[in-house]
Amino acid sequence: PGAEARKEAPKARKVLEINPDSPLFESLSKLNDDQEIQKFGTLLYNQALLLEGRDIEDKAGFVSLLSELMIKAAK
User: Is the pTM of this model over 0.70?
Assistant: First the structure.
């Protein structure tokens, strides 16, 4: 095959879709604290990476954040 046949196909753009009708989205939309919103956003993004089979950069931070939010939810 020629050089043209060996070219890699362009990579697809990654998309994170959120279902606005989900109970999770409904709960998150009620948050007013920017820091809490950031935490949940980071958690959701890292979950999406893991579901895709990719690695996350800060595993310890992910676990810490998940634990923090679980503690708050259990109160």
Answer: no
